[in-house]
Structure to design on (189 residues):
């Protein structure tokens, strides 16, 4: 643990407050004309996801936990959770379903992800911004629809629902954005 002053906290930092770990969501410094400057910090408890707000004097010492962020390759999912492997050391890490959360629909075998770990335990995952998926089913094209204005719903091989242009049919591989599940382009492979 490293002690830092409250005013130096930034989004993404992990802090230890009374023995519990929190991820900083936002940190704002207030400097009133009179009185003590303070830092307002919104954070999420890692253990259960509860959001908390905390206010410290800007010069107050806060314990900042050192988090290890590395690339891992996704291997498979089983009853223990999601299994990842560090490409350089071949060391494997099992990640619980609550840490993976909504990102599980994007995970594909061999996919390179970033895992943030604290003392050997995964606390957060970052998936690539764009992934390639295969369309398994779509609605048929309605005659008279113009390609520029209308998208139709489609289902991917990972069970994700996306909106695609009318010319995309089952079996087509497309690239989607993991930020908002939007269609980017047809895959070039």
């Amino acid at each position: 643990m490293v002690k830092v002053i409250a005013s130096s906290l930034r989004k993404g930092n992990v802090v230890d407050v009374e023995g519990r770990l929190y991820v900083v969501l936002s940190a704002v410094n207030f400097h009133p004309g009179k009185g003590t400057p303070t830092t307002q910090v919104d954070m999420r408890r890692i253990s259960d996801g509860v959001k908390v707000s905390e206010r410290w004097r800007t010069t107050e010492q806060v314990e900042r936990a050192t988090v290890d962020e590395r690339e891992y390759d996704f291997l498979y999912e089983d009853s223990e959770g999601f299994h990842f492997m560090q490409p350089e050391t071949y060391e494997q890490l099992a990640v619980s379903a609550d840490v993976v959360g909504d990102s599980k629909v994007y995970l594909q075998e061999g996919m390179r992800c970033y895992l943030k770990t604290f003392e050997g335990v995964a606390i957060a995952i970052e998936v690539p911004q764009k992934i390639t998926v295969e369309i398994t089913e779509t609605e048929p094209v309605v005659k008279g629809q113009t390609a520029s204005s209308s998208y139709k719903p489609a289902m991917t091989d990972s069970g994700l629902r996306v909106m695609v242009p009318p010319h995309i049919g089952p079996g087509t591989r497309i690239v989607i954005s993991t930020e908002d599940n939007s269609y980017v382009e047809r895959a070039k492979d």
Q: What stands out?
A: The chain has a mean pLDDT of 87. Residues 130-186 form a domain with the OB fold (Dihydrolipoamide Acetyltransferase, E2P) fold (CATH 2.40.50.140).
